[in-house]
């Protein structure tokens, strides 16, 4: 009796099918990854554009409201980055008095030595 249907597969055909299936799955995964990557890049670009817009609005407000706006109008260069006021250094009265005493002692010593400068 004759066999009907496909002829039996040899090992080479089985290996080729397995490789083809694996490559097909890999290609599908790469395509999905590339689509996700494109979506993420679009989201990042949108966030960056929104952030740049917010920063430009803040810069505009800062330049208008600050005393440094005169330098902007005259074309002087502004420093890069945020502008922060320096913290005020607070020293107690006792420390001020001690520093004063020490400075006066240094000046007296220099004067006694006939110097006009402390260096």
Give the topology, please.
Elements lengths: L10 H55 L3 H6 L18 H20 L7
Describe this structure in words.
The chain has three helices and no strands. It has helices at 11-65, 69-74, 93-112. The longest helix has 55 residues, at 11-65. The mean pLDDT is 81.
Number of domains: 1
By oligomeric state, this entry counts as single chain
Radius of gyration (Å): 39 Å
Order of helices and strands: HHH
Task: Report the average pLDDT across residues.
Answer: 81
pLDDT below 50 for ≥5 consecutive residues: which ranges?
none
Compact overview of the structure:
With 119 residues, the chain is mainly alpha-helical.
List keywords for this structure.
single chain, mainly alpha, 0% strand
């Amino acid at each position: 009796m004759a066999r009907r249907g496909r002829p039996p597969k040899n090992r080479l055909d089985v290996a080729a099918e397995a490789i083809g299936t694996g490559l097909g799955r890999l290609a599908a995964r790469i395509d999905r990854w590339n689509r996700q990557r494109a979506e993420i890049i679009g989201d990042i670009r949108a966030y960056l554009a929104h952030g740049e817009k917010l920063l430009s609005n803040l810069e505009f407000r800062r330049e208008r409201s600050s005393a440094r706006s005169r330098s902007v109008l005259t074309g002087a260069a502004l420093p890069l980055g945020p502008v922060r006021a320096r913290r005020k250094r607070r020293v107690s009265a006792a420390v001020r008095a001690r520093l004063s005493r020490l400075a006066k002692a240094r000046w007296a010593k220099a004067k006694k030595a006939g110097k006009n400068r402390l260096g």
